Amino acid sequence: MKSYTLKQLALILGAEIQGDEALEISSVATLENAAQGQLTFLANAKYRAQLEKTQASAVLISPQELEGFTGNALVLTDPYVGFARVAQLLDTTPKAAIGIHDSAVIPTSAKLAEGVAIGANVVIGENVILSENVQIGPGCVIGQDCIIGSGTRLWANVTLYHDVHLGQDCIIHSAAVIGADGFGYANERGIWIKIPQTGGVRIGNRVEIGASTTVDRGAIEHTQIHDGVILDNQVQIAHNDIIGENTAIAGNSTIAGSTHIGKYCIIGGNSAVAGHISIVDGTHISGGTNVTSIIREPGVYTSTTVAMNNKLWRRNTVRFRQLDELFQRVKKLEKSSQTEN
């Protein structure tokens, strides 16, 4: 089991130490459930009461919250970021694969760099390139002409269709499908005619894609997901979408085709973004929001209503339907008042 002293962690995080710098930390935990040998964090003042009761050996804490706390601590501006970095150092997640399993199907045209690991029942297509230290979990299918960058991990049962390129240090979780056909059809007198989806998918470095998420291939040009993007579980990215650097999209969200989402955006869970629009850099979309038009100014956008008693919700729904009629009546009254004056 890996462990670090408070002094070592302080040097890594750029934190100040309060207490025993030789104290060893072997894992992380919450304030409420931490035990000896564990490091916890206080990132929200509402959990301050738990700080006094925690059994953790040390706490990541901000200078503002340090007053009155006499225990072992690493003091830094953002304790939650510090927690994330320490959690990475002490991560015990196993590898997606070790070595190359005998049951894997690998054609002679595939190129495997040093340190590649491939699990049981993996099928690799023609002309695939796997860079250094790539891990392919059991049951994955990698289509022809795919390229996977160094250090990228695919967990069990991921499917990459043909002509999908993944950058370095990506994580693709189980049952994700990348490069399936987009929803492209023409209608001729009621009959749907399929449009072949001849584009690919291009994914940058340090991208994480959640379980059962789908990223469709482009219709003609490539679907693009840029560096640092994180997609939660069960997210739909349609054909020809472009997702800008370091944007985060939470679970069950759907991005329709040919939409361009900027850099550093946050899209809350269960949101839906219409096709053929763009969203400017730095936009925050609240959970459950439907975005149907271009967003040109960064900010927080919301279109949901809060949960309420069903009877009240029914009355409000009726009133919402009457809103236009009410508006027209008010407009008429204003016009009448202006005429009289």
TrEMBL record:
It is an enzyme of class 2 (transferase). The active site is at residue 239. InterPro entries: Hexapep, LpxD, Trimer_LpxA-like_sf, UDP_GlcNAc_AcTrfase_non-rep. The keyword Metal-binding does not apply. One of its GO terms (cellular component) is membrane. Coiled coil: none annotated. The keyword Ion transport does not apply. Its EC number is 2.3.1.191. Keywords: Acyltransferase, Lipid A biosynthesis, Lipid biosynthesis, Lipid metabolism, Repeat, Transferase. Residues 23-89 form the UDP-3-O-[3-hydroxymyristoyl] glucosamine N-acyltransferase non-repeat region domain. GO terms for molecular function: N-acyltransferase activity; UDP-3-O-[(3R)-3-hydroxyacyl]-glucosamine N-acyltransferase activity. Homotrimer. Belongs to the transferase hexapeptide repeat family. LpxD subfamily. This is UDP-3-O-acylglucosamine N-acyltransferase. It comes from Shewanella violacea (strain JCM 10179 / CIP 106290 / LMG 19151 / DSS12).
